[in-house]
């Protein structure tokens, strides 16, 4: 089978690749604005059929109980996807606008390889634990704890790292024994649909275990939240949508797992190498045009060296060109859509209205007449209460803020509704550790340490989310706990 980016894609429902009842919708290349092809447009009836298939596969199949079979299927899926890696890479660059260099990591190869980690967990996890004998209320009792799959998982994902986020849900949910209905973002249907095709045609994953429903209709995501046949909603997206997801899941009291937005701080202490730290901060916010929830978008530098820091950061940012994502050297590709570009440009205008200065960037690159590109942009001269310092912009935009020492840096970092990620740069380990302890976020990098890997739990404090993705903590989000007490035999 060849997966070509010009194919029209199908839904995967109950093991079959089927057209959408609503016809098709166009898939755009954000770097060229060309129509790449079409994706299946699902309707509420398709979503209903997908949920029914997942429910049946969970309730009547052996999937949730056969740990070794599931591990085998996940390895089979990993091998099959790896055999299509170049075709998938082509699709990912074209559909997502993902820089080619990222597809050897988190945009493609990383999350596919991570399927082996989830397979190993399915096989090696302690599914059963003996609590030992006790005599509650004087009755000798043996107690065992069993870990079991939650049931049907509704997975709702965004467009910025579609493979990473789709597999961060499919991997642990399937390894834990659940069945899944995946609803990817309307901007990136192919990344999910092609995985659906590989599952249907090249794996033994039973019918109904994975269902993939592409659509431009956000209301189909909402149906996953309200349908009582779905036991858990695993959502990654904006904080605003996360609130709606949580509210709509309340009626049926389903488990809700949320990975949301961020406005993370990059803290440079006064004993750090300022120029190097600023350069790293400048580079990281340009990766994938700043479309990463965990990117550090506020740079906090010592007030006494603010001007020097602004100059060093601007020097790096002005050297990074937003360009063709298929070129090997490109770090900063396009934004995903005209709508996102408008949103980012709105924030650039707002920065000036709020009294800020655009030090570098601020517009569309002069050498690009097609594609949703925005120049890497540095905003200076605002304080942390400015909306551009408080709200998620989701573009290659960095706000540089002065701090008055370690405690003040922690205060500013925490003065945010979000708590997803962050970075601390300094040379004195005691000071660094104090700052790390003070920052209220789920993930922190110290002096450039890399936190992303299959076994490392990732997630947010505060309004950045509920629960953890990846690692054993991420796997356990998809499990229930059953305690069984029986008379102790002597
Ligand atoms: P979004 O919230 O607009 O959409 C995400 C998904 O939710 C899409 O599939 C969409 O169709 C669906 N959806 C929309 N309305 C819904 C509703 N009422 N009920 C159920 N589902 C609904 O987000 P986006 O614009 O696609 O992605 C960007 C956002 O995602 C950013 O805020 C970013 O920070 C966040 N994000 C977070 C993480 C993380 O792990 N914390 C990772 C990546 C992206």
Structure description:
The chain is of the alpha/beta class and 490 residues long. It folds into two domains: 5-260 and 464-484, 3-Layer(aba) Sandwich (Aldehyde Dehydrogenase, Chain A, domain 1), CATH 3.40.605; 264-453, 3-Layer(aba) Sandwich (Aldehyde Dehydrogenase, Chain A, domain 2). 37% of the residues lie in helices and 21% in strands. It has 15 helices and 22 strands. It has a seven-stranded mixed beta sheet with strand order 14-15-16-13-12-18-19, with helices on both faces. Helix 5 (162-175) links the parallel strand 7 and strand 8. Helix 2 packs across helix 6 (189-202). It is globular. The termini are far apart.
Taking strands numbered 1, 2, ... along the chain, how are they ordered across the largest sheet? 14-15-16-13-12-18-19
Please give the largest β-sheet: 7 strands, mixed
The global form is globular
The fold-level CATH name of the largest domain is: Aldehyde Dehydrogenase, Chain A, domain 1
CATH level 1 class label of the largest domain: Alpha Beta
Class of secondary structure makeup: alpha/beta
Query: How many structural domains?
Result: 2
Strand content: 15-25%
**SS elements, strand count:** 22
List all distinct small molecules, including ions and cofactors, that are bound in this structure: nicotinamide-adenine-dinucleotide
């Amino acid at each position: 089978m060849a997966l070509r980016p010009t194919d029209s894609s199908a839904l995967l429902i109950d093991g079959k690749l089927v057209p959408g009842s609503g016809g098709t919708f166009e898939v755009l290349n954000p770097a060229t604005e060309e129509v790449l092809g079409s994706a299946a447009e699902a309707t509420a009836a398709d979503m209903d059929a997908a949920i029914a298939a997942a429910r049946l596969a969970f309730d009547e199949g052996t999937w949730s109980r056969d740990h070794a079979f599931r591990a085998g299927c996940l390895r089979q899926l990993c091998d099959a996807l790896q055999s299509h890696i170049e075709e998938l890479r082509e699709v990912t660059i074209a559909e997502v606008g993902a820089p080619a260099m990222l597809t050897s990591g988190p945009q493609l190869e990383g999350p596919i390889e991570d399927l082996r980690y989830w397979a190993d967990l399915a096989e090696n996890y302690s599914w059963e634990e003996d609590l030992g004998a006790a005599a509650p209320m004087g009755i000798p009792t043996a107690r065992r704890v069993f870990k079991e799959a939650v049931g049907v998982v509704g997975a709702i994902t965004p467009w910025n790292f579609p493979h990473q986020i789709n597999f961060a849900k499919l991997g642990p949910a399937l390894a834990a024994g659940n069945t899944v209905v995946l609803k990817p973002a309307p901007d990136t249907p192919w990344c999910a649909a092609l995985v659906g095709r590989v599952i249907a045609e090249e794996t033994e994953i039973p019918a109904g275990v994975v269902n993939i429903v592409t659509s431009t209709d956000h209301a189909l995501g909402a149906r996953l939240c309200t349908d009582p046949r779905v036991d858990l909603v695993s959502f990654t997206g904006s904080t605003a949508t996360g609130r709606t997801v949580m509210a709509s899941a309340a009626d049926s009291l389903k488990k809700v797992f949320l990975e949301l937005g961020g406005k993370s701080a990059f803290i440079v202490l006064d004993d750090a190498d300022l120029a190097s730290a600023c350069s790293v901060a400048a580079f990281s916010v340009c990766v994938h045009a700043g479309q990463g929830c965990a990117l550090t978008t506020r740079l906090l530098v010592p007030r006494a060296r603010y001007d020097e820091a602004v100059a060093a950061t601007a020097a790096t940012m002005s050297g990074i060109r937003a360009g063709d994502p298929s070129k090997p050297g490109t770090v900063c590709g396009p934004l995903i859509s005209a709508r996102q570009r408008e949103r980012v440009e709105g924030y650039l205008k707002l920065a000036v209205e709020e009294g800020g200065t655009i030090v570098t960037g601020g517009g569309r690159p002069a050498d690009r007449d097609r594609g949703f590109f925005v120049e890497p942009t540095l905003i200076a001269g605002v304080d942390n209460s400015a909306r551009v310092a408080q709200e998620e912009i989701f573009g290659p935009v960095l706000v540089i803020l002065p701090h008055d020492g370690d405690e003040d840096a922690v205060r500013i970092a925490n003065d945010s509704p979000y708590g997803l990620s962050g970075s601390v740069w300094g040379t004195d380990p005691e000071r660094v550790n104090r700052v790390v302890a003070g920052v209220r976020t789920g993930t922190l990098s110290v002096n450039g340490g890399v936190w992303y890997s299959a076994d490392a739990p990732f997630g947010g404090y505060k309004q950045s989310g509920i629960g953890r993705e990846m690692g054993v903590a991420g796997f356990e989000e998809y499990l229930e706990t059953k305690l069984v007490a029986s008379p102790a035999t002597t």
